[in-house]
Automatic annotation (TrEMBL):
MF (Gene Ontology): actin filament binding
The protein's name in its UniProt record: 5784_t:CDS:1
Subcellular location, principal: cytoplasm
Domain annotation ADF-H: ranges: 1-134
Keywords from the UniProt entry: Actin-binding, Cytoplasm, Cytoskeleton
Amino acid sequence: MADVSDPIIRETYDEVRDDRSEVSWLILQYENERSDKLILHAKGSGGLAQLADNLSEDQAAFAYCRVNVSNDELSVRTKFVFITWIGSRVKVMRKAKLSVHVSDVKRILQAYAIEITAYEKFDFNESEVLTKLRRAGGANYDRGSHNY
């Protein structure tokens, strides 16, 4: 069981969810290599690229990000992404625990449109994430016209 009891985790989650807040993402990381306690590692307002810059290859982490999705200037929707990060140098035991801990983290970071498991920084490609969000969001008006 992962320890997600630190109140700053919930407070930062609420910040990310708040459209008036500058904070658009957060990263939870393990307190140390042997611990099951998650702490707030970082938060920011720079989008997916900045979030990815705060992750390392020897780290396992969970992230949450607010993304604005639009098909045109009149239809901007706010969506949320839940991310499990497994860096390429994460040890086998930590990887095994992640699969169990993800459900504990989702009890706190609970509202999201899509879930991504990322192994490389290119998994944070903004255009690919936006495409996944549009697909998950229902109507997609940029597919062009159809003749019926």
